[in-house]
C-alpha cells in the first residue's frame, strides 16, 4: 500500500510539473492595471498615502472574521496560471484588477513606524520611517496535514515615490501546530521546504526567480522615507524579524487574528535584526534549518517596528493592498 501511495504522489508531482511548464509558456503578457487609485497618488506625501489606505482598511473592516479557505491542488494550479512576475514588477500599493491572493489570504493589518537604533549603518528606511503598514497572516488554513505557517508583510510609504516592501516567513515548513504566532523569528530568506507542497510552490516561483526562497532588501536601503535616493547605499542581505518578548499567545488551536487585534497601539511588535556581514556572500542554496538559530544569534539589532494604530482585519487589508516582492535576480 505504501509503495502505491508513494508512486501516486510522484505521478501527481510529475503531472503538475509538466502543467506548470505549459502554463508558464502560455501566460498572457498583457499588462493589467491596478485597481482604482486616487489621482496623483504616488506623488503624495507618505502620511497622505497612509491616510488613504487606512481609510480603505477601516471602511472594509470585518464585522465577523471570514473563514480561512483551503489550499490544495486546485489552488496550486490556479497559482501557476497567475502572472507571478506581477509580484515583482508592479510597484503599486493597490492590487491589480482580477488579482487573487492564494497564500496569506487572511490576516490583520496595522499602521506602524520604523524606529532606528542609534549608530546603525544601513541606509534608506533603515534610518527611520513614520508611515508604514505591517500585515500579519498565516500562509494557509491549518489542517491535519498543514502546519501553522506565520508570515508578515511590511510596506513603508515614501514621499513622492513608490513604497518599499518586504515579506518574511518563519520557514516554509511552518511550526507544526503551535498557534503562538510570535513563537519564532521570521526572515526574508528561508531554507527550501522539504514537503511536496513546498516543492510545487518552489516550482511556481522559479518561473520568475532562480532563488524563490530569497527576497531582496536593497530597495529599502536605496530610497529613504522622504523619497530621496541614497548616493552611497548600504543594504543588508538577510533580515530577521524577532518578536517582542512581551508578545506571547496561546499555543493551542485558535484564530490568531483575535491575537493580532488585541495588540495595542504603541507596541514594539518586532525588532529588525541583520545577519552578520560575513554572510553577505553566503551560498543560501545550502541554507538549512540548522543554520537559522546560529544566524539569528549573531545578528545585529538595527531597528524596531512599533504600532501606531490597532490591528484591523479587513477586506481591503486582505485583498486590496498590494505588497511587492523584490526577488533576487
Architecture overview:
By secondary structure, the chain is an alpha+beta fold. It has one domain (44-320). The chain is built from 9 helices and 8 strands. An 8-stranded antiparallel sheet has the order 4-3-2-1-8-7-6-5. Strand 3 and strand 4 form a beta hairpin. The longest helix is centred in the N-terminal third of the chain and has 25 residues, at 2-26. Residues 1-33 have low confidence and may be disordered.
For the largest beta sheet, what order do the strands appear in spatially? 4-3-2-1-8-7-6-5
Helix content: 25-40%
Q: Helical region count?
A: 9
Average pLDDT across residues? 84
Q: What coarse outline follows from CA principal-axis ratios?
A: globular
Structural topology:
Elements: H1 2-26, H2 46-59, H3 73-81, H4 86-89, E1 107-116, E2 129-138, E3 150-158, E4 161-169, E5 186-187, H5 196-205, H6 218-222, E6 239-243, H7 256-260, E7 268-274, H8 289-298, E8 300-307, H9 315-320
Antiparallel strand pairs: 1-2, 1-8, 2-3, 3-4, 5-6, 6-7, 7-8
Summarize the structure.
It contains 9 helices and 8 strands.
Question: Tags for this entry?
Answer:
alpha+beta, 8-stranded antiparallel beta sheet, 329 residues, 27% helix, disordered N terminus, 9 helices
